[in-house]
Design the sequence.
């Protein structure tokens, strides 16, 4: 039974108190993703960019700004992936953590659709007043113009040194706008700012600035390495804009500096979703508050954390729900303060596949967005085990050694370090200074949660695991699962049992999460397809995990793009349990079949009885591009349950679409209609008195220890 929200919040606060009692500072951030579940336009199915996505993001940011007045809206450079001709848009809200305002100038016209009334003379007045304000701070400033955007420019220094040897002949002062040129994969670089010279640009944006539909004056800000400088610069720009009576201002340019005193929340486009890069928080309670704000902002903008498919199936938004752990500063990251933590964490995740799969989306495995390190080739798995052992022999491995030792293994089979269950791109990458040396570890094997409470429960789980490995250090033991990884742990039953082992381990270490959080984590409604009783037993059918293969040459699938997989195979978990008051031994007389073949069942003992279960794999549909071109679709799937000595028999037919044939008219309007469509496809018939047909024995190639693969038939 789901807990109440006040009880959940209390459990979160209790978790925080446990970590505070041990003086553990473990900051947590998240990247929840939201989609327009009513739309089937490419931007909400496969593409990162589209005509309406930024409008939804601007609405989300407006909701954020309403909750936190005094924040600065920054439309800074986004990322640029191979094959894209310009950086993606990036909308952000920059705030002080103590709540004091950082921006008192004219607002960003986020939701305006008409150009702001402003003359060129007013723009030039703002330009001049801004230079005067810089000078009033004791900073040397020089105004000049160039032919390209932004045409009005100011160069300044904070010290008494000359601006440049010959400013009028310095080509870098006439550099093109950041938005009109490609950026390095390592991020944009401001060479002038690195030398203490700062360049401001002012102008009307052109189409290459990709700033949406509003025409408003833009200020292109330089890179600032110090938060104090950036905050002062925002103050000066706001004062000058107010003095010039500008009705609105758009702040663009380089991403802002970060430290423990400020928070930067951004919205960016990704395939099928808007990604919310939430500012990290020092504890789970503030994380829950921030998550609730983000979910509410998405709902107000017409976006959802889940999708509803035509046949009623529910999936996540399509962009995942990654979580990040670190510290208030890079040096304060627990992964750098406790250098043995990361190797033992990798070993802990290896030994507990539930952490990789139970909360994952529909696409898992070595070609997914978050493959486990042991899903690579056998020789790489053996090398990783050796790397962990060698690190364990080091008394105090430094950040560079951690990176050099582990980064080759925390990548997908093509070597992409972003696609990894445990992503250390931002831990201490010597080839990516600044952004790559933040002491952060990202956990990517999470589907987008449907509620902020689920997201907060996952954050608490990760923080508790990290705290347990800090307080009770252990050697990074590594287990070779072999076939069990994609056979046994494809079934929710075994993942749930493994998750219980993790929860019990945390409780034994004095870091138990409390019943409200445990109930949220163990909620398995995502997997449930149907349940029915027959005689003295209960039959449950749950969708299981399937490891879809990547099609084509994986090495050519560039970072940041959607990839083509064969998703035609589905896996189910079929289980039997005795009804309350019935002896488990009674299950031995029941026979279960799939499409006429006897289904071998495994008997598993639990605290409250026995479960008999098996996995079933079959081809749901025949793809237009995919594996096995001669293999037809095998739906609908027919399951029969009969007893050796009782006349009643149960026949369950699982339809992919309407049982009467044809498709559904439009997507489900809501979760209730989606549930009705799923129930319609789960057809139950009770047959009395008819002799059961003899069951066929499955051929050996179709059997694994935990699954029966109908595709072999």
Sequence:
């Amino acid at each position: 039974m789901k807990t109440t929200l006040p009880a959940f919040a209390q459990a979160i606060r209790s978790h925080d108190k446990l970590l505070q009692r041990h003086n553990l500072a473990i900051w947590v951030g998240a990247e929840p993703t939201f989609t327009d579940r009513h739309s089937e336009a490419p931007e909400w199915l496969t593409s990162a960019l589209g005509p309406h996505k930024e409008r939804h993001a601007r609405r989300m940011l407006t909701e954020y700004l309403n909750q936190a007045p005094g924040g600065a809206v920054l439309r800074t450079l986004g990322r640029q992936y191979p094959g894209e001709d310009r950086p993606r848009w990036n909308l952000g809200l920059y705030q002080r953590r103590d709540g004091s305002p950082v921006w008192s100038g004219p607002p960003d016209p986020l939701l305006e659709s008409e150009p702001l009334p402003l003359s060129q003379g007013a723009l030039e007045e703002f330009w001049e007043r801004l230079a005067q304000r810089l000078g009033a701070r004791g900073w040397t400033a020089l105004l000049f113009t160039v032919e390209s955007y932004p045409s009005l420019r100011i160069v300044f220094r904070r010290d008494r040194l000359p601006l440049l040897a010959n400013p009028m002949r310095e080509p870098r002062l006439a550099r093109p706008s950041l938005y009109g040129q490609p950026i390095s994969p390592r991020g944009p670089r401001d060479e002038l700012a690195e030398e203490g010279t700062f360049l401001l640009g002012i102008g009307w944006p052109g189409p290459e600035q990709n700033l949406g539909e509003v025409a408003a004056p833009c200020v292109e800000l330089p890179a600032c390495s110090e938060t104090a400088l950036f905050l002062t610069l925002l103050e000066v720009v706001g004062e000058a804009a107010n003095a010039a009576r500008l009705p609105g201002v758009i702040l663009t340019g380089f991403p802002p500096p970060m430290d423990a005193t400020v928070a930067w929340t951004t919205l960016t486009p990704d395939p099928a979703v808007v990604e919310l890069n939430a500012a990290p928080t020092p504890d789970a309670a503030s994380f829950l508050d921030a998550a609730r704000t983000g979910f509410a902002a998405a709902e107000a903008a017409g976006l959802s954390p889940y999708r509803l498919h035509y046949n009623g199936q529910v999936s996540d938004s399509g962009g995942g729900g990654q979580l990040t752990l670190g510290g208030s500063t890079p040096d304060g990251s627990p992964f750098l303060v406790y250098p043995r933590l990361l190797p033992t964490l990798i070993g802990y995740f290896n030994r507990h596949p539930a952490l990789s799969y139970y909360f994952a989306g529909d696409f898992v495995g070595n070609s997914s967005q978050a493959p486990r390190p042991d899903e690579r080739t056998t020789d790489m798995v053996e090398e990783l085990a050796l790397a962990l052992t060698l690190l364990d022999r080091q008394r105090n491995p430094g950040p560079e050694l951690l990176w050099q030792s582990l980064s080759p293994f925390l990548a997908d089979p093509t070597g992409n370090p972003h696609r990894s269950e445990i992503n250390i791109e931002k831990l201490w990458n010597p080839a990516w200074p600044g952004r790559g040396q933040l002491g952060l570890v990202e956990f990517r094997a999470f589907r987008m949660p449907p509620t902020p409470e689920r997201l907060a429960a996952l954050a608490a789980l990760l923080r508790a695991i990290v705290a347990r490995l800090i307080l009770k250090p252990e050697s990074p033991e590594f287990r070779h699962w072999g076939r069990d990884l994609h056979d046994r742990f494809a079934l929710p039953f075994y993942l749930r049992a493994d998750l219980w082992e993790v929860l019990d381990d945390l409780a034994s270490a004095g870091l138990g999460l409390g019943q409200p959080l445990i109930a949220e984590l163990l909620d398995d409604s995502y997997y449930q397809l149907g349940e029915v009783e027959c005689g003295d037993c209960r039959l449950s059918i749950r969708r299981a995990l399937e490891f879809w293969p990547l099609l084509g040459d994986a090495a050519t699938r560039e970072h940041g793009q959607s990839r083509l997989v064969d998703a035609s195979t589905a896996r189910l978990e079929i289980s039997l349990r005795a009804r309350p008051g019935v002896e488990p031994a009674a299950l031995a007389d029941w026979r279960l079949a799939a499409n006429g073949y006897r289904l071998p069942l495994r008997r598993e003992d639990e605290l409250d009885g026995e479960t008999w279960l098996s996995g079933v794999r079959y081809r749901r549909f025949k793809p237009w591009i995919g594996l096995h071109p001669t293999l037809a679709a095998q739906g609908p799937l027919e399951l029969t349950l009969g007893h050796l000595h009782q006349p009643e028999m149960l026949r369950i037919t699982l339809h992919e679409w309407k049982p009467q044939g044809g498709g559904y008219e439009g997507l489900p309007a809501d979760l209730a209609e989606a549930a009705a469509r799923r129930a319609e496809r789960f057809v139950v018939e009770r047959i009395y008195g008819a002799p059961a047909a003899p069951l066929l024995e499955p051929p050996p190639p179709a059997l694994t220890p935990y699954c029966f693969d109908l595709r072999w038939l």
Remarks:
- The CA atoms of residues 365 and 547 lie 5 Å apart.
